[in-house]
Amino acid sequence: MKRMSINKTDLNISQQELNSIDDFRKSQDTAVLTVMFTDIQGYTRLTETEGEVYSAELRKHHDDILKREVEKNNRGLIVKFIGDAVMAVFAEPSSAVETALDIQQSLKEFNTRNTQLHDINVRIGLHMGQVSVENNIQIDIFGRHVNRAARIEGLAEGGQILMSYSVFDSAQGWLSSRANIGWELHGDYALKGIDGTTSVYEVLDKNYKTTAKAPKGAIKTSAKVFPKTLVAGLLVLIGAATAFFALRYNFNTEVSFRDFSAQDVVLDNERSLILDGFPADRMRGVVGDPIRKALIEIPRGKHVIHYDVHAGTRYYAEFEVESGENFIKPFFYESRLPALNVRFELEDGQLEGNNEKIEQFTFIEYKDGEKITHEAEIQLRVSSKLESAEAKDVMHRVDWKIVLDGKTVSEDSLLKRHPVTERDSQRGKSTEKLYADDFHDYTYRYYTSMKMMDFTLQSYFLNPSFKHRDQ
User: Fold this and answer.
1) Coil, strand or helix: which one is 137?
2) Which tens digits make up the pLDDT trace of 112-149?
3) 453 strand-pairing partners
4) Among residues 8, 143, 349, 455, which one has the fewest Cβ atoms lying within 10 Å of its Cβ?
């Protein structure tokens, strides 16, 4: 039995839920969220045959498992439970996919241990998109992403994890080292209430699921066929553009990229990498062009390209160009700038306490064509104190130290007082950079609530390939 369709009102986000989503988004310092939508296959029929008491008990087990997996290590946030459905958000698409895989594994283990109960088979849909503009979440934009995630989930069967291309494209590279993960492109589908078509992918853990299954009862679309005259015209334009660049820049090299889908890519830290055609599909080459020619001059020699997935996370790829035709399939590797978060809250009856962390970081910079490896260490300590059990305010103190390549570049402290009974949080961030060079800088942000202080020290690229952080 196909699940009952979810009413549009069920997908509406209350102001309280919106505030929780925005707090989570800001704590992760991102403008992009991945939305997860799930439900239990056959739950309506189960309620009809076994009764509401039995189905409610089964749903409680389901809710406990999903809440545990989604909120593990603060990787996601459950927005709401809608009957047997769950709506959650994640800052990183790879975390969303890993969580989905963990959910299916945990449910499989639960079903194996509890043979006296009906199996809990869950469908999962994922979609990713930007939800924040000028550091303010846009509810209408977020609502569209939620709707698309719900529609993708509606294509799935119990045990399946389906996602849009945006999630697949971002997560696949991050999870490529996990040999047990398989990916499958099912094709383009028309989703109810959504313009255009959506490329639907499936991820599966080969340890317990070996076969991908295309959605049933859904409208699958085929690739658009362009008129021959239009194709000919495009070829003429591309040829003219190529000739123009060849004459103007006196090319003695021709560079094309294979299966290249990254966007906002920068070449040699100087200029945008401009390619013809459309982004290629990494799985089957049916979406976009598998080979895309560079429309800018790339001379002979060694080069590096990069693109940013976060204001503090960058993907790099090195390649070399020789005379004549070059077909490049770049291998990207990740470099993360230092970031550390410490949170501490006084327990009932506790007058003082602290939490501290020390972490080392390694990250990469390319300067004048040379690869430079940096070593950094962040020391962070959050301490809180009440003058007495009757005190109305708690004093929070943060001490930090930043060591970059063996040299202390910032060492200071911050004091903040907060009312013990004040639940509303106070937020703040550094108005001046703690340290900056021509590559990156360091700043902090914090929030306090009652007896709790949460403090994050973060480094950002000074010249990101997209405008992502607050200015």
Assistant:
1) strand
2) 999 888 999 999 999 998 876 556 666 666 778 888 89
3) 344, 448
4) 349
Element (H, E) at 457: strand 452-461
Overall average pLDDT of the 171-187 stretch: 85
Listed as own residue / partner, the contacts of 298-303 with beta carbons closer than 8 Å and 24 or more positions apart are 298/253, 298/255, 298/267, 299/253, 300/252, 300/253, 302/369, 303/267, 303/268
Q: Which residue has the higher pLDDT, 421 or 305?
A: 305
Give the whole-angstrom CA distance, residue 83 versus residue 59. 9
Model confidence, pTM:
0.48
**29 and 169 share one domain:** yes
Neighbouring CB atoms inside 10 A of 221's CB total 13
Residues 336, 68: Cα–Cα separation, whole Å: 27
Q: Kindly give, in sequence order, each residue whose CB lies less than 8 Å from that of residue 422, ignoring residues fewer than 6 positions away.
A: 449, 450
Residue labelled with tokens 């509401």: 52
Instruction: Please give the Cα distance from 45 to 1 (Å, whole number).
Output: 7
The answer to whether position 271 is within a domain reads yes
Looking at the chain, the whole-number percentage of residues with pLDDT higher than 90 is 44
